[in-house]
Amino acid sequence: MVYAAETGAKNAEKDSTNDPGYCQQQTRQWSGIAAMYPDAATAWRNTNDRHPGNRNPPRGAHVFWTGGSSGYGHVAMSLGNQKIRSTDAGGRGRVATVDLGWVEANWGLQYAGWAWDNNETTIPHTDEGDDDMPLSEDDIQKVAHRVNLVLGDYKDDGKQRDPSDKDPDQGNARIRAIENKVDKILKKLE
Asked: Which CATH superfamily is domain 5-125 in?
């Protein structure tokens, strides 16, 4: 039975030991996910709801790294606030809570990202926490571009629109409607 994200995180917090080298097994068991892929790197390549490079994994999500001497990578449980519960982080066979960057700094693995699934099984979660996650620079640029298009300051090709091309009679009602939409977007970003 697959556990909700919060239950998986609590299971990880209660656990203090692990079979050395079995991060994929341990992490999926915390979430109640059945066996399928043999290692973390393979599981990451087959995730469906992934967030590559995002360093703000929500509580209960699985967090992945690639590389290692055998290429197996690593997977851990996010506790939120850039903390993870990781096998072998407290020493061989000991589970510990560490910062997200600990795996890279101590084991030299490359951070891949986080996912709401492992072994093609979705971890039940709510999207409430997603609104609190900071947007990437690319996401902010996309929002800004769309706002500029909606406001009518720029054409689809990205070139600035000539202000004299606007119809002044439509302006006030349209601007109020746009301001309301922009206010809603900005509130979500706060």
From this structure: endopeptidase domain like (from Nostoc punctiforme) (3.90.1720.10)
Q: What is the pLDDT of residues 8-60, one digit of tens each?
A: 999 999 999 999 999 999 999 999 999 999 999 999 999 999 999 999 999 99
Identity at 96, one-letter amino acid code:
A
- The pLDDT score that the predictor gives to residue 169 is 47
Q: Name the residue type at position 115.
A: A
User: How close are the terminal C-alpha atoms of the chain, in Å?
Assistant: 36
pLDDT score of 129: 46
- Please choose, from the candidates 107, 121, 109, the residue with its C-alpha nearest in 3D space to the C-alpha of residue 30: 121
Mean pLDDT, residues 75-81 = 98
Burial environment of residue 40 by CB neighbours within 10 A (0 to 12, 13 to 18, 19 or more): buried
- Phi-psi sector, 88: left (phi>0), alpha (psi -120 to 50), beta: left
Residues in a beta bridge with 115: 50, 62
Q: How would you classify the pairing of strands 121-122 and 62-66?
A: unpaired
CA distances from 15 to 39, 42, 162 (A): 20, 24, 63
Instruction: Give the pair of three-digit tokens for residue 52.
Output: 């590559």
The predicted model scores a pTM of 0.68
How far CA 122 is from CA of 3, 28, 62, in Å, comes to: 10, 11, 10
In the chain, what are the domain boundaries? 5-125, 137-189
